[in-house]
Amino acid sequence: MSDLERSSVAKESRRSTPGRPWTPQEEPRQDALGRYLGAVAAAASARSAEYSEATPGTAKPEPPQAESARGSSEGEPAVLRVRDVMQVPAVAVPGDLQFVDVAHTLAREQVSAVPVVDADDHVIGVVSESDLLAKAAVMAEPRRHGAVGRLWQHRLYEKSHGDTAATLMTFPPVTVHPADRVADAAWTAAHARLKRLPVTDYHGRLVGVVTRRDLLRALIRDDAEIRAEVESLVGQHLLDPRAVEITVENGVVTMTGTLDKAVVAELFASVRGIDDVVGVVDDTEAV
C-alpha cells in the first residue's frame, strides 16, 4: 500500500469512527495527535531498550552533557532538550501559603497547577486545582452517609484537613531536568497524565516549567518547516531544484515535476526519513 493510500484509509477510518461530529479542524488535530503519540512511543521504546541492556550493579548513567542547538557535532541532527522549550521563570508557591491564596495564585496565573517549594527553592510537591477542589468539596459537604460516603471521606481526609500548600499538595513531585530530551519529557507527562511538569536542576531546585503544549509544539514541526527541509534535500540532489514543486499538508509531502530517474529512489528515501513526515506522494515523472 502506498503512502497516499495509507493516508486515505486512515482519514476515512477516522471519519467513520462514532463520536462527536467531524469538523474541518478535527483532521489536522488528529494528525498532530498521532504524530505526537508516535514520538512518545518512540521515546518509550528507547527507554525500554536502555533498561533491557542495563545489567544489575551497573553505575547510574551520567547526565547528558550540554549540546548546541545544531547538535553535538556537525552533520548530526539537533536533539531538542527540555531547556529549549521550558518556560522561565516558573510560578511557584511556598509550602506555608494558605489555601485561599493558593487558589488566587492559580486563578491569577491562569494555570491548573503550581510547584510547591521550600525556602531553598527545592520542589517538594505540586498543588493543583484537583487538590483544592477536594478541600472545597469537604468544606461544602463535610458529612456523607453510607459505605460510599465513608470511603469518599476516608480518601479525602488528608485533603480536607489541610490549610496550606504543603498539606494540600500531591507528592512526591514528578519532575524533569533541563537536559532531558523533549521526547522523554513527553513520555513522562503522558505516563503520569500531567499537563505541567516542574523542571529542576540536579539538586532538585526549580528552574522552570514545561507544559504538554510546549512539548507538543516542539515534537511536531509545522508544515512550513518540513517543506524547507525537503527543499534543502531537493537542492542537494538536483541541479535545478525548480524542476520539482513541493507541497506539505499535515506532514504529507507531495512532489510534482520532472526528475532524473537515477536520483528518484535516493531522494524519496531521504524525504521519508525527515522527522514528522508521515507520508510522501510521488506525482513526479522520471526521465
UniProtKB/TrEMBL annotation:
Pfam families documented for this protein: CBS
InterPro entries the UniProt entry points to: CBS_dom, CBS_dom_sf, Diverse_CBS-Domain
Gene3D superfamilies in the record: CBS-domain
Start-end of Basic and acidic residues biased regions: 1-15
Transmembrane segments: none
Annotated spans, Disordered: 1-75
Feature: compositional bias, Low complexity: 33-54
Domain CBS, chain residue ranges per copy: 86-148, 169-225
PANTHER family hit by this protein: CBS DOMAIN-CONTAINING PROTEIN CBSX3, MITOCHONDRIAL, OS02G0818000 PROTEIN
UniProt-recorded name of the protein: CBS domain-containing protein
Source taxonomy: Bacteria, Bacillati, Actinomycetota, Actinomycetes, Kitasatosporales
